[in-house]
Amino acid sequence: MRLQCLVLALCLGVGVLAGGKYSRDVNEPKRSGSDEQTVEFRVAKLNQVWEKAKRMQLSPVRQAELHSDLKIQEKDELQWKKMKVDGLDENGEKEAQLRRNFNVILAKYGMDGKRDVRSLESNSLKDHETKDGDAFDDPRLDKLWNKAQNSGKFTSEELQSLKREFQHHKDKIHEYNILMDTVSRTEEIHKNVISPLEGDAKEPVLQQKHTELKEKMRSLNHGFERLRKISHEGFCEDSEFREPRVIELWEAAKRSNLSTDELDSLKEELRHFETKVEKHNHYQEQLELSHQKLRHVESLGDEEHIKRNQEKYNTLAEKTREMGYKMKKHLQDLANKISRQGLQHNEL
Predict the structure, then answer these.
(1) Does residue 225 sit within a domain?
(2) Which Gene3D superfamilies does this chain map to (predicted)?
């Protein structure tokens, strides 16, 4: 009897150890390959994208940006898995949104398997030919930018700030076109659905996609109108913010019927966020400089010197990725907060 108890205890002990190991395997980054490299993400397809990106030789800053985008996607996908277990995404809206976001990431970094022929021009000016002086691949943006540059209304520092706003708007147009392309392809699939019941189930998802497209177009129109006004009139002396993403959030907040107290509170939060964005921008600049220095040192062939600079570069790259993720997560939280509070006021 005592022998049986001992055997049972040993079995239970092994089971507990195995269970602990299983939990760690699930929650900790795994290692793969003969060199035991740490896997970056807990979602397999995101790891595949990251490994492909490393072979593409993206610039250090762009690679760090991709890493941050994938970390945000990972966070959202893991949250969705919990939602699905709890039965909170019955119509598949969240799943469809995650798929769209993933497709946007692939297209944004040229990893969607097709040559990027999405032009950034407006629908009314598709015959526009890019000239050497064009900075933003869009005739309306280029015209505004040239006018601002030659107006004499801006200091060199203000022109740099304005250029960042123009570049941000260009990126938003690109993402809108990617999303529109994704929705168009989804609609083609939707038309070919055989089962009427399946088609009815997908209808809310398509409606949600069209709503998202309309919101992005509205945001683009507001953004362009702001650029047009600044290009004609110059910056206001009482401009609240300098960073394009912060400005966009603040403009959205002012349109969302928030109370004066809520706007004051949000303004303070946006100031802290802007400091975070500027710090991240600084780290991106340092990362690019560090990469240039590393390439120079490698050309000299001093192994010890190369090793030191590689370690510095790796540390800086890791810090830049981490800051990028925190900044984008904060941006996501602020956008959701403004949208949610504005909706609540509209309902009242």
Answers:
(1) yes
(2) RAP domain
